[in-house]
Structure formats: C-alpha cells, structure tokens
Specification:
Layout (H helix, E strand, L loop, with lengths): L1 H25 L3 H16 L6 H8 L9 E8 L11 E5 L12 H5 L4 E5 L2 E8 L10 E7 L3 E8 L2
Antiparallel strand pairs: 1-2, 1-6, 3-4, 4-5, 5-6
C-alpha cells in the first residue's frame, strides 16, 4: 500500500515539473513579449490606414534589432478564413537558423503550445531544444490570443 502511494505521488510530481520548467524558460522573455504584444495590438488596429507592407514593417520594427528573437507571428482572430481581413504577418530574424522556415504557416502550426500562468497572466508557452523538426536551434515561445489578434513570439533559449 505504501509503495503504491509513493508511486502515485512520484508520478504526480513528475507531471508538475513540466509546467514549472516551462515557467522558468519563459520568465526571462515575459517583459519583451508583453511590450511587443501591446505594440502589435496598436498596429493591427491602425491597419485600415496602412498598406500590408507598411503594417508588416511597422509591426516588426521593434523586433528587428532584438538578438533574442528568432521569429514572430501576428494573426487576426475572428475572421473568415482566406479573407483579406484575416491576413496574418510573420517575421524571421536575420540571425535565425537557415534551416528554420518561420515564414511558412506549417512551421507555426507544428508548435505545441501549453497554457501556463506567468506573473498572474495566462499565456501559452512552447519550447524546443533545437533537435526536433529541423528548427535549427533551441527556442522558447510565448503566445496570447485576444478577441482581436493572436501574438506568438519565439525567443532564443537562454
């Protein structure tokens, strides 16, 4: 009976280590993510006054010099698939591995996001050690979706 209880307790603890590890990986990037997320919301709201090229340039301007960022994506939510209003924008840093194809939708769809609470906020987190799916280097991803947009940012793992 005691062995069974210890086994159940040990397996419960193992399941709890993954959320904790996700939070440790994500915490150093939280402030940069929050800043970009606010910027993305403002830019997408102003989209009607700008061309798509201007939106993309403006949207990712704050990330271009950030060495810690590998890629980012902003997608409008709640629109008909395929409509112009549904268009999303993607950014891949010049320093990202040549093997990584973050401008391709399939690369973003392959990420495994998990909900986590970080500094009182509900976010989605993903990570990789760089060995899977040919992504080329380790990363930590943070994402959040509101009624308007979904913002996803991949940071170099520290």
């Amino acid at each position: 009976m005691i062995v069974l209880c210890v086994g159940v307790l040990a397996s419960a603890c193992e399941r709890d280590t993954e959320p904790a590890a996700d939070l440790v990986r994500a915490a150093p990037h939280h402030d940069r993510f929050a800043t970009f997320e606010r910027w993305a919301h403002r830019t997408v709201r102003a989209r009607t006054a700008l061309s798509d090229a201007a939106v993309e340039s403006t949207l990712f301007a704050t990330l271009r010099l950030e060495r810690a960022i590998l890629a980012a994506r902003v997608v409008r939510v709640g629109c008909r698939e395929g409509s112009e209003r549904c268009r999303g924008w993607r950014f891949q840093s010049a320093g990202a591995s040549r093997d990584a194809q973050w401008r391709e939708e399939e690369a973003w769809q392959a990420l495994s996001w998990r909900s986590r609470r970080l500094e009182g906020e509900l976010l989605e987190v993903c990570h990789s050690d760089g060995s899977g799916a040919g992504l080329g280097e380790p990363y930590v991803g943070l994402a959040r979706q509101t009624d308007e947009v979904r913002v996803e940012v991949l940071f170099r793992a520290e």
